[in-house]
Each structure stands twice: as structure tokens, then as C-alpha cells.
Specification:
InterPro entries: DUF1759. Pfam families: DUF1759 (PF03564). This is GCR1_C domain-containing protein. The protein is an all-alpha fold. It folds into 2 domains: 1-62 and 151-199, no CATH class; 85-147, no CATH class. It has helices at residues 2-63, 88-100, 106-116, 119-125, 135-146, 149-162, 170-189. Helix 1 runs parallel beside helix 7 (170-189). The longest helix is centred in the N-terminal third of the chain and has 62 residues, at 2-63.
Length: 199
């Protein structure tokens, strides 16, 4: 009988610890939802302010003839591109200025391009002869293959749907909130309507 009573006491303490855990989970869930709601509101405020600033910049630049002095900065190295669609724009901006838009020979540009590619993108370009005649064709194919805005949007939407917090801890929930905020910002920047009630 004593063993039964001990087991019942132990069961009661387990039930109360489960109830405590459930209450903490509910509290963390409510806090996360509040943070997501706040993040969404801040996101909309951010885009409204950004639009206001852009409108103000247009007015200032059109009415001002001020030019800033040239600054001699060291060149920024061209990053490696490994075929991830969300990294294409960053890669292209970094490659375009120091290499593509320069007046150098296309053979040199092709070699700089090959040096900047990794994995499947390098294999894709290696299907062409590495000559100056094929440089523009390779650039066009890379832009068509990786510069597809819809692929980027699909990747971002997939991230919204599949990303989860590592645990119910508040820190992990905040990390998730920050990640979702950055993804939602990118979706809005790419013209997607980011109404949190539909996502």
C-alpha cells in the first residue's frame, strides 16, 4: 500500500510539472504571436518610411547639383556564386561593376567569371568553350537561369512555410521572428503582398 501511495504522489508531481510546462508553452506561444504581430506592424511602418525617404531623396537630388568628392577605396572582392537563386542579385552586382561593365576583353571577363563560380554553376559554364565569343551568351544564360524573380519569391515563400524555431525557448522564438521579418521584408521588396493573416 505504501508503494501505491508513493507512486500516486509521484504521478501527481509529474502531472503538475506537465501542466506547468503546458502553461509555459502557452505563454511563449502568446508572446511569439505578439512579437510577430509587432514585427508585421513595424515592417509596414518601415516600408512607409522607406517610401517617404525615397520620395524625399528624389526631390533633393533633382534640386541639388552637389557632388561628393571621390573616395579611393580598396576594391571589393567578387563573391563566389554557387547557384542559390537568392544570392544571384548580390553576386551580379558585385561582378558587374568591377568586371562585366569594364572595357576589358571578353576572354578576360570569361575567366574572371569562371573564377567566381562554384559547383553546378561552374559546371554549367564549362559546357561552353571558354572564348571571348561565348561570354555574352553565357552571361545571358546565367541571368535567365538564376535571375528569375519568381524562383526567388518561391524560395522565400518556402522559407516562410518551413522555418521553425529550434525549441519553445523565448530566445529561439525571437530568432525565428527575426528570420521571418527578414524574409517578409524581402517578399515585400519583390512586390509580394505580405498580409500576415494569409501566411
Amino acid at each position: 500500500m505504501e508503494n501505491v501511495q508513493t507512486a500516486l504522489d509521484h504521478l501527481d508531481s509529474n502531472i503538475s510539472s506537465i501542466d506547468d510546462a503546458r502553461e509555459r508553452i502557452n505563454a511563449n506561444t502568446e508572446k511569439t504571436l505578439e512579437l510577430l504581430d509587432r514585427a508585421t506592424r513595424y515592417l509596414f511602418k518601415f516600408f512607409k518610411l522607406k517610401k517617404t525617404l525615397e520620395d524625399g531623396k528624389e526631390n533633393v537630388s533633382s534640386s541639388s547639383n552637389f557632388s561628393s568628392p571621390a573616395v579611393n577605396l580598396p576594391p571589393i572582392p567578387v563573391p563566389k556564386f554557387n547557384g542559390k537563386p537568392w544570392e544571384w542579385d548580390t553576386f551580379w552586382e558585385a561582378f558587374n561593376h568591377p568586371v562585366h561593365s569594364q572595357g576589358m576583353d571578353h576572354f578576360l571577363k570569361m575567366n574572371y567569371l569562371l573564377d567566381s563560380l562554384e559547383e553546378k554553376t561552374k559546371a554549367f559554364v564549362n559546357q561552353y568553350r571558354i572564348t571571348r565569343e561565348y561570354y555574352q551568351m553565357v552571361i545571358s544564360h546565367l541571368k535567365n537561369k538564376y535571375g528569375n524573380k519568381q524562383d526567388l519569391i518561391d524560395e522565400l515563400l518556402n522559407s516562410v512555410q518551413t522555418t521553425k524555431a529550434n525549441s519553445d525557448r523565448l530566445e529561439d522564438q525571437q530568432t525565428l521572428c527575426k528570420h521571418l521579418f527578414s524574409v517578409m521584408s524581402q517578399l515585400a521588396h519583390n512586390g509580394e503582398f505580405v498580409d500576415a493573416t494569409h501566411l
